[in-house]
Specification:
The protein is α+β, with helices and mostly antiparallel strands. The protein has one domain (10-95). It is built from two helices and five strands. It has helices at residues 10-20, 24-31, and strands spanning 37-46, 51-62, 67-78, 83-87, 93-95. The chain has a five-stranded antiparallel sheet with strand order 1-2-3-4-5. It is globular and about 45 Å long. The two termini are 20 Å apart. The relative contact order is 0.21.
């Protein structure tokens, strides 16, 4: 798993999410060695009550033409409360618990 450079403590939250996620696409990574999940930093979002680091969770897919990252999920990491949130298809943040 490649995470790039992350602030202290965020790497363990993202790693925990990848290892214990109930998202079927993300959950393949720990059990299928051919799937290598990555967390790519997208942006930082600051609100009045939170500061989120947004990560694209995905895996590499190669074919005869090229390699590309396939997105499996987006997560928001609240750096103040040290919580992870799933970004749902209906554009809501749902706190992730394991």
């Amino acid at each position: 798993m490649k995470y790039g450079r992350m602030p202290s403590g965020v790497d363990s939250l993202v790693s925990r999410y990848i290892h214990y996620s109930s998202n079927a696409l993300v959950a393949l990574s720990p059990t299928d060695r051919s799937v290598h999940e990555e967390a790519l930093f997208d942006q930082e979002i600051k609100t009045d009550s939170a500061s989120y680091l947004v990560y694209n969770i995905g895996h590499d897919l190669e074919d005869k033409d090229a390699a590309r990252l396939v997105s499996d999920n987006w997560i928001y990491v609240d750096t103040l409360k040290r919580k992870v949130f799933d970004y749902t298809p209906d554009e809501k943040l749902v706190e992730w618990t394991y």
